[in-house]
Amino acid sequence: MKTHAYLLDIKEICREKHLTVDEIFEKLKKTYPKVGRSTVYRNVDEMTKLGVLTKIIWIKDKALYELIGENHIHLIDTESGYIRDLGIDNINIPGIPYNFTVDYMNVDIYGKFN
Ligand SMILES: [Zn+2]
Fold it and tell me: In which element (H, E) is residue 25 found?
């Protein structure tokens, strides 16, 4: 069972942001030619459960993954799949009416770029 064998490598790969598991698999294969696709799926799933990666529901039933850390919102074009990060400094977030400290955000907004 190699569930954690590639954790650090996958973490490094995901610094590029917004990758499908297949893209992560292709990149990991360059270093580990024998790595199996299901192993990569298992690792990514585990890392998502551990809160290392976040899953973005993309288009056409596909998901993208990125490292949790930098707070931003995703603007996702539902036709082209183009995805753009919007830093929270660039928008006005409505005041949070509770005594609540944000650890991280996971906000995906779907629409169309004109
Ligand atoms: Zn992002």
Answer: helix 21-31
